[in-house]
Amino acid sequence: MTVRPFRPADARDVCELRRRVLPYEISTPQSVAWEVAEAPAGRKLRVFVAEAGGRVVGVAKASVRHDSSTPGQGVVVPLVDPGHRGRGTGSALLAAAEEHLAGLGATHLHAYPQDDPRSMSFAERRGYRHLRTARYLRLDLARAALPPLPASLPPGTELRTAADFGADPRPLYEADAEVMPDEPDVLSVDAMTYEDWIVHTWERPDIDLDLTTVVTVGGEIASFCLAGTDGRDRYGSAMTGTRRPHRGRGLAKLAKTASLHRARDAGCTEAFTGNDAENGPMLAINTAFGYRPFGVEWHSVRDLTGAGSPT
Questions:
Q1: Residues near 93 by beta carbon (within 8 Å), at least 6 away in sequence
Q2: pTM of this prediction?
Q3: Which CATH number fits domain 2-106: 3.40.1710.10, 3.40.630.30, 3.40.50.1110, 3.30.70.20?
Q4: Mean pLDDT throughout 287-298?
Q5: Torsion sign over Cα 244, 248, 250, 252
Q6: pLDDT tops 70 at residue 311
Q7: pLDDT (0 to 100) of residue 188
Q8: What is the DSSP string of 193-239?
Q9: How confident is the model at residue 220 (pLDDT cuts 50, 70, 90)?
Q10: Distance between CA atoms of 255 and 213, rounded to whole angstroms?
Q11: Which of 43, 117, 46, 31 is nearest to 77 (CA)?
Q12: Gap between the Cα atoms of 78 and 80, Å rounded
């Protein structure tokens, strides 16, 4: 087994590996290659693959949280094919990722082990403390009894898609930038620039602008559901949010209802979503749609300074 830098030719193998290990994530070969090729300079992204017998059996991403105002935050995401665990692959990948981030002066490393004894023990032995969980849910979209769309909307309220904002996506960025810091998490995403958002979100090859639904009130974006697909049959809601003055009016549910109907009409049969375990309102909405538990990840942190958690 050898660890080496990612090559564009690895994109398909890495995508299939991610599907096996993280079946609730939307991934395509195009998005894997795009993430490496188009990563913002401030992210300092490096991707390593583990190869054995000519096959990619593991992958690790190492990057800096350049979109957070908290300095010194690194992210490590090692994944190993289930059939190759216990052979030192994960340790070698994690060591390469940690070395890259330590060399950049990272003070804290964030990882996301799955909620199983083996993954959690692996992280603990390497100094990662488990702080909070995220819950991933699955909806059988082909059979789900989705709530109907309302026959009429309140005066001044419209249902649109992200594609409608193709000439000027800045209003959608401003809505995303406003709601994202309110997401419960160890780190707040509160420093995403418009230029990075265009590349990181708007131009992502797995984001579907026709399935991304936007609710406007008085011509301004009030709520939205950012959606992506794997180009086959899987749909993922990447972010659902409502701007602060418009909360409590059911607009997030409206946006997601419209997006799910569009996804099913487009041929998607499975829908996935993820929520912080403390995000009660969104978990309630997803449960009402028929989403059911599918996986759990921990947000875990390793302190490289001895000073404690970044929070």
A1: 3, 48, 50, 58, 59, 60, 78, 80
A2: 0.91
A3: 3.40.630.30
A4: 96
A5: positive
A6: no
A7: 74
A8: -HHHHIIIIIT-TTB-TTT-EEEEETTEEEEEEEEEE-SSSEEEEEE
A9: very high
A10: 6
A11: 46
A12: 7
What distance, in Å, lies between the first and last C-alpha atoms of the chain?
38
Residues spanned by CATH 3.40.630.30 within the chain?
A: 2-106, 138-296
Query: Which residues share a beta bridge with 73?
Result: 108
Question: What's CA 233's distance to the chain center, in Å?
Answer: 18
Number of C-beta neighbours around residue 2 at 10 A: 8
How many C-beta neighbours within 10 Å does residue 146 have? Answer: 17
- The stretch 9-21 carries a mean pLDDT of 96
Q: Which two tokens stand for residue 143?
A: 């059979």
**Which CATH fold topology does 138-296 show?**
Aminopeptidase (3.40.630)
Looking at residue 36, the DSSP 8-state letter turns out to be H
